[in-house]
Amino acid sequence: MRRSNITEVLSGPERLLDSQGQPAASGAIITREEAQALVQRVVAMSKADGVDVQVGGGYSTNVRFADNQMSTAGAVTDFTVAVQSWFGKKHAVVQTNEISDAALRAAVDKSERLAKLSPDDPEAMPMLGQQSVKQVDAYFPSVAGMTADDRARVALTALEPARGAADLRAAGFLVNNVNATALGNSKGMFAYHRATNANFTLTVRTTDGTGSGWAGAEHNDASKVDFAAVSRRAIDKARQSRSPVAVEPGRYTVIFEPQAVGDICQLIGFYADARATDEGRSPFVKQGGGTKIGEKIMDERISVYADPFDPQVLAQPFDGDGLPLGRQVFIENGVLKTLYYSRFWAQKKGVQPTGAPTSFLMSGGTSSVDDMIKSTERGILVTRLWYLREVDPRTILYTGLTRDGTFLIENGKVSRAVKNFRFNDSPLFMLNNLEAMGQPVRLAGTEAGGAVVVPPLKVRDFNFTSLSDAV
After folding, report:
1. For residue 358, what is the enclosing H or E element?
2. pTM exceeds 0.85 for this model
3. How far is 423 from 425, CA to CA, in rounded Å?
4. What mean pLDDT is predicted for residues 391-413?
């Protein structure tokens, strides 16, 4: 839903409500039929030229632990209705989490009053009519039905071995989300998506303060997550990374585990915006004008795409306006194929809109991380990156730090832990220096967020600029 610069929130009890405005049973989410009926109730109350309605909410359950002890466990439910009223090119949004007739009518009335006060939106687009949105089945009982005992058992996969070792301290978080989102308007558009998600992340540190290991996993289906394996990886990383030594910064052959690849390579997707490119604010601008579409911009083994229907992501198949999303291939065999278009920019350029992607996926290869290490005479193994900040949008040059397990490789083996590095480099540069790729995997999240599937990579000449004493 396009949001105006006038937004009002009408707050009520933060609890999930059923279609009659009554507290729902624990664990309930709004169904497609209930959401559609709710949209129709709001539309019937509207006196504006048009009205958009966004319905969203659900519940999440979690367990958190730190210093080898369970610290918190809980559940949160929430539900929101956003009403956007339109008068010509004027629009405004009011949000509420109560859905009684009185509460909805108050939201509708207030959004109409605010819309009349707002300035014309020069990029306002007509509301969409009925759309053909292909459904994504992203709801799994393995997440929705996970009990407090089940979550505690996941935490114990890390806590029990950490408690049994005198030199380890574990901290982690398991969160299970169950959500539904629906969009509808007075022109007949309606779209609905429900999804589950299990996310487990874990940091293990050594008691001497020198070693830190991180691991994580995420999936729509909790049965696809090996929680014990996540805990073992973090524990192994912590033990291996203690007492790091300083290694001179410089350009190295680097093996990036999938999490580190996602941290930096996902940035490519944010710059694949047709408007930013046409306005000269992207690395895909051709010198002298135009775009680089059709040009080879990285190693031919690389393809980058978005696909809400891919079984590894199962993302929302429509954007914030209700526009259906499909598979979008941005880079194919190293060649820039397309950019994504908002409805406004597509109309301006006379092309079909694609909507902004809700996932990021990268092609892979057959090399394992162990194979990459064995083939490396001297290099660096990186677990993950953090605190990434933009330096130059024209090349996607970023700076950031390694974290939670950085290692020196010598003669085909991991020889020792090293202090963390600061880097200055670009995913475009590194994907032109590609040596090997592994199997793509779903990540547990990145700084940028979203559903991300990428492989481990081995690249040459990655630029480490300085050392960090942080563990």
Report:
1. none
2. yes
3. 6
4. 97
